[in-house]
Amino acid sequence: MVTPVRSDIIGGELALCWSDGSEQFIPLKKLREECPCAWCKGEPDVAGPAHALPERPPFTPESFQLKVMEPIGGYGLRLTWGDGHSAGIYSYDYLRSL
Ligand SMILES: [Zn+2]
Questions:
Q1: Which of 20-24, 25-29, 40-44, 73-77 has the lowest mean pLDDT?
Q2: Which residues are found with C-beta within 5 Å of the ion, ligand 1?
């Protein structure tokens, strides 16, 4: 599996160097907009619309500030954003697909 060997935040983009030698630059705004958590994706609860998650509040400038990157279980990164949102776990496969 290809894993990130380096990650840096450079001028509003997340720069990733992968173990296969490739480099990737993902704008933080896009990264936040593509947050894979159920809340951001607005996935309907399996129990039905009556149990739908509350609507996500609009993004603020803080929403696009990446505060913490935390490796999770060797397969992905948990990102914590300036507005406190940290539910999204971005698998390496998902990051590479962005
Ligand atoms: Zn999210």
A1: 40-44
A2: 35, 37, 40, 87-88
CATH label of the domain that carries residue 88 = 3.30.2020
Outline where DSSP puts E strands in 1-73. Answer: 4-10, 13-18, 23-27, 66-72
Q: Is residue 18 part of a domain?
A: no
15 within domain boundaries: no
CA of 93 to the centre of ligand 1 (A): 17
- Domain of residue 78 covers 29-97
Query: 37-72: per-residue pLDDT in tens?
Result: 988 887 665 555 555 556 777 899 999 999 999 999
Residue 20 falls within a domain, yes or no? no
Q: What is the pTM of this model?
A: 0.84
